[in-house]
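As agreed, record copied across for absentees:
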Amino acid sequence: MDKKIIIFVIVAIAIVGIGVYGYGVYSSGSENGTLVIYAASSLAGQMNQTAAKFESQHPNVKVQIKYGGSSDLINQITTLNQSVDIMASADYGLIDKNLMPNYTSYNLKNGRNEMVIAYTDKSKNSSQINGENWYQIFSQNNVSVGIADPNSAPAGYRGVMMMQLASTYYNDSTLFDTVIGQNTAITSEQNGSKTVINSPTNIDPTSKIVVRPAVGDLMPVLQSGAVDYILVYKSDADQQQSSGVKYVTLPPELALSNTTYEPVYKNISMVQFSGTNKSKTIGLTPIVYGITILNNAPNKQLATDFLQLLLSPEGIQITKSNFIDPISPAEATINSTNIPSQLQQYVKMP
């Protein structure tokens, strides 16, 4: 074989190898330090597994992850000046709105989820509930419902706004008030075709509504039998099926996973911490995760290596194994700039 052809073949194989296995080219076991990640609690399975893989490839590195409601975690970064390398949010819009451009220069949409109703055999009327009658069962006096805190967790404000959306979908004008309005201090008001939900600092729930800081805090309450049904992400319910957790899927319009319905979602918004100087308005959006490296990340190279693993084919498999629908390549939001060259093979620009 001609020597030039042989050289060409070798170079071509090397290029393909870099494209498919690029993560291995950049990773280095000689690095050391502590990588600090703030992440939505619904990402715990994915992040823990990715961190374990990363630590095995970087023996001198410790990955430290703090989980919670995305809004609360971002607030800790912006108001408490917490030293953080990576922020992974259950609502990519929170990064665009609160961290760009002062705290980061880019935001990568890297996964999708959907809202479901989780329950167990101990839940009241569990043998009857389905995707068509769930809202009627929620309305029953003796049935309790768990939600994440709408002031701190995307799953919380999405769950509450979904209940308002369901009122329209099922043509039941009393649904929101029966489940949420009469059992919390949360209120809803119409303004033409728009609906504004007000969520005060003190939600003041009755025994019908159980509120926890983050979506990850709801599952233990359900499994203990302290609540009948919880509004959570599908990935959370899927991960607990072996423990007896079941779930009802919602109609596509209510599951919040399909961008087709964004024009409808824009008619609903929530004022968090209403009536205070901390109040802020957030709209209903599809469940799309976002992730970024902070501008002042103490370990920027380690953070870049971690994101490269997460976005690589190996990381995508980890994401899928934790029942999250990956966005691959990840999609940079419209104002993103200065994305590290190391990540660009896994990112689609707007």
Summary: The longest strand covers residues 33-40.
